[in-house]
Every structure is written in C-alpha cells, then in structure tokens.
Write a structure and sequence with these properties.
The chain is of the alpha+beta class. It has 1 helix and 8 strands; from the N terminus they run αββββββββ.
Length: about 100
C-alpha cells in the first residue's frame, strides 16, 4: 500500500494529535521531510546537507519534556523545532505557542 504525501501527513497528525494536547509549545511537521519535531536548545547551527530549509544543530538538548517549559534556552537563544536522525539533530522551524496545561 502506498500513501500519498498528504495522506501520510494526515495520518501522522491524527496519531500524534492526542499526545500533543496540553503542551505549552507547538512544533509543526518538519519542512524538509515531514517528520514530527520537538523543541531543542542548540549552541549553534550549520546548514544541513542537501537542504535549503533545514539546519543541523550543534550540541543540542531536547527540552520537550522539561516540566517548566520556557522559551529561552539555558545558554541564550530560543528553542527550535527539530527532529533527530541518529546522532544528528535537524531543525526547520521556530517553536510556536501551544496549549498551557
């Protein structure tokens, strides 16, 4: 069975929707690959290989599970919406406002 890109995106959102309820942040699907993203704080960014819309994060930490989520990273800057592939963290968008708990 082969799903179209839009059907796959709708399926991903329907499966992830209940888990996103009540989060103080919002991360859309990745702009380059339509993966689910979560907030990461990174010390820096370099252009991702073969992409015009994404960046590879440098020394990143996942802050999605922080009890008191804040929009400021420990070393300054703001969290970015990213996904991980192996040891790499790929970021494509800014973190948006979610639903407060």
């Amino acid at each position: 069975m082969h799903l179209s890109t839009s059907a796959a995106a709708i399926l991903a959102l329907s499966l992830a929707g209940p888990t996103m309820a009540g989060r103080p942040y919002f991360c859309p699907l990745a702009l380059d690959a339509k993966f689910l993203q979560v907030p990461y704080c990174c010390e820096g960014f370099v252009p991702a290989r073969d992409s015009k819309v994404s960046f590879e994060g440098v020394n990143c930490i996942d802050v999605s599970s922080d009890e008191d989520f804040v929009k400021t990273c420990p070393k300054g800057g703001t969290p970015k919406c990213c996904y991980s592939i192996g040891p790499k963290v790929i970021c494509t968008t800014e973190v948006g406002d979610g639903v407060d708990k």
